[in-house]
């Protein structure tokens, strides 16, 4: 038996092809302590720009995972169920390690997979599932292991960040930029997973589990995408000194963990405000380390393949730890926090162009004890509605939603009011319950 780890790769798309290129490079570190022996994909004859004839071919990734001649399964198939889940379970059940770039699989089934891995002495690593080449998982699992994390916030989806960046830079609509992103390959033909916020939510569930020592809990992530962010929102936010980003945020609050993904306004001095294009970033607030920020390319062949390679090298060197930083039994079944969600908010109204509208809006806000911090109205043109934007002083989200409902019921707006939180840019992001 060779002393090198024997690796099988399931899935030969962009990331799988990038990993095979690393194995083909004689100077790559992956060749020092491991050897690629087997591959599996849906189409054996597809042109990939790299020779796969030297490796054993498996039509079925589950059959490859069950092969006793493989020490590590690299799962790059994708999807939360189906062959990806079956192959991962098959490998772990016989004690083989798994390295995965599949955020949906680990976010949804991470509890069972981590418990299975520990029961057989296997390891399951997923650095490439979050942040591509940015070591977000490793940073939280290792660098902050001696700290107490209070909050994490990040830009975890490059497609959404690209769309919002281009809308602001070019003065273009969401639909126009999305179509371009699809043509360029930045967005899928069905972009729901990205623009709907679900991809970022999968990643947030994994990062929150590690940061707060809790079992992964994707079902309790509150998710809102960027589909309703308009060019008007982008422009009005800019006039008020803010930039809109899709923020994935996890917080330790009231003895539990609160997780949400939603577009938010960031002041230009916020550490995430200037993360542009398809870049990803994460800010972690912990004691006693303080605030730490990580920025880099969150997708693509090179960055993601390098993250897979890093996990493989950790396995080969004996550095691989527990999936979520602690033994599964030590991970808390954290009570899901339902904090008051107090903060400052942005409200955009498409108001009827007639007297008394502003007074009606102010009256409904005052009734919920909400104070206006700033007020901005676009010039009135010939249309029947005019955009009005206001920001609030600190108030509860519930009160603001009640006011928004009353404003809509009053018949002074053409569509439901648009609400977005304003993220503070202080040295430490305070939990909602402390605001």
Question: What do you see in this structure?
Answer:
By secondary structure, the chain is of the alpha/beta class. It folds into 3 domains: 5-129, NAD(P)-binding Rossmann-like Domain (Rossmann fold, 3-Layer(aba) Sandwich); 136-297, Dihydrodipicolinate Reductase, domain 2, CATH 3.30.360; 342-434, 2-Layer Sandwich (Alpha-Beta Plaits), CATH 3.30.70. The chain has 14 helices and 18 strands. It has helices at residues 14-24, 30-33, 61-65, 82-93, 103-120, 136-143, 158-170, 174-184, 192-195, 198-212, 231-239, 301-316, 357-367, 397-409, and strands spanning 5-10, 34-40, 56-58, 72-75, 97-100, 124-125, 148-155, 222-223, 242-253, 256-267, 279-287, 290-297, 335-336, 342-352, 372-377, 385-392, 395-396, 418-423. The strands form 2 sheets. Strands 7, 8, 9, 10, 11, 12, 13, 14, 15, 16, 17 and 18 form a 12-stranded mixed beta sheet that branches. Strands 3-2-1-4-5-6 form a 6-stranded parallel beta sheet, sandwiched between helices. Helix 5 (103-120) packs parallel to helix 10, helix 6 runs parallel beside helix 10 (198-212) and helix 7 (158-170) packs across helix 8. The longest helix has 18 residues, at 103-120. The N and C termini lie far apart (60 Å). Mean pLDDT is 89; it is low at 427-435.
Instruction: Using the coordinates shown, work out and report the CATH topology of the largest domain.
Output: Dihydrodipicolinate Reductase, domain 2
- Uncertain runs: 427-435
Helix percentage: 25-40%
* N/C terminus separation: 60 Å
Q: Provide the β-strand percentage band.
A: 25-35%
Largest beta-sheet details: 12 strands, mixed
How many strands appear in the DSSP assignment?
A: 18
Average predicted confidence as pLDDT: 89
Our Rg estimate from Cα atoms comes to 24 Å
Please give the CATH class of the largest domain.
Answer: Alpha Beta
Shape: elongated
So, CATH architecture of the largest domain?
2-Layer Sandwich
Number of helices: 14
Structural domain count? 3
| Structural class determined from secondary elements | alpha/beta
> What is the CATH homologous superfamily assignment of the largest domain?
Dihydrodipicolinate Reductase, domain 2
